Amino acid sequence: MNSEFAVRSMRPGELELVLEWARQEGWNPGLDDSLAFLEADPTGFFVGAIGEVPVGSISVVKYGDSFAFLGLYIVHPDFRGKGYGKAIWQTGIATAEGRTIGLDGVAAQQQNYRRAGFEPAYLTIRYGGVASALPASTLVAHPVLDSRLEGLLRYDSAIFPQPREAFLAAWCTGRKGRRTAVVRKSHKIRGYGTIRRCYEGYKIGPLFANDADSAAALLAELAPEAKGATVFIDIPAENREAIALAEGMGLQPVFETMRMYRGPAPATPLKHVFGVTTLELG
């Protein structure tokens, strides 16, 4: 290992570099994900660098005092096999000591994660394709106003393991290529979702809903934002209603990951998770 190598917090502009690495790995992040990622936990992003040159990365974003999520674990191809990844991993993991840590692992890495103390919780399947139809619903979803996120934040905290107000305030803010919608019945929120422009097509996530009818209303409102481009949704395999909605839109399985946890797994109500927020931050 080069004697000038060190692991440190990311500096301005380096998260954008790491997201470009993620694009090259085929992970297809959103075009402006860095804005919301940093709001989630500004202290949760690290690079391993040789002098001033970043060669690898990891994010360990902390939510509350009991949960964290690991992602963006990448070593640039030119620097693999030299021990840099292990050092980056150890530094990142240490920052979440005492918390349950989650991650979404590709098949090739799941055994390595198990050796590091992570246990499988559930399979996530990425569905993708050009939507050939929109689902029917008895409800109607509406765009979310940036100034009216309070109810949405409360709804999210009942599904995601910990509150994440700062992240969602940035994630759901209306920007070009990004839209958030909410569905209500009797003035009560029954679900919400966000679609965002990615390097390839669009991703919908989160897609949280009380039931399939509410999720269908959200999809009917959000999917047209893609304007005929490819749409992707990361769906817990246990949620058969979510899979049926995706297949009804003409989407097909294109990728799989395993949600894994080190520490007690949170009691996530997967029947309400019709689409994961992001594989990088949970």
Task: Report a brief summary of the structure.
Keywords: Acyltransferase, Transferase. With 282 residues, this protein is α+β, with helices and mostly antiparallel strands.
Structural class: alpha+beta
Run of helices and strands: EHHEEEHEHEEHHEEEHEHEE
Count of individual beta strands: 13
* Number of distinct helices: 8
Helix content range of the residues, please?
Answer: 25-40%
- Average pLDDT across residues? 95
User: What's the overall geometry?
Assistant: globular
**End-to-end CA span:** 32 Å
How does this model look, in words?
Its EC number is 2.3.1.-. It comes from Rhizobium croatiense. One of its GO terms (molecular function) is acyltransferase activity. This is GNAT family N-acetyltransferase. It contains eight helices and 13 strands. It has helices at 14-24, 33-40, 84-94, 110-115, 150-157, 165-171, 212-222, 240-248; strands spanning 5-9, 45-50, 53-63, 67-75, 100-105, 119-129, 141-143, 178-185, 188-197, 202-209, 231-236, 252-262, 273-275. Strands 1, 2, 3, 4, 5, 6, 7, 8, 9, 10, 11, 12 and 13 form a 13-stranded mixed sheet that branches. Helix 2 (33-40) runs antiparallel to helix 6 (165-171). The longest helix has 11 residues, at 14-24.
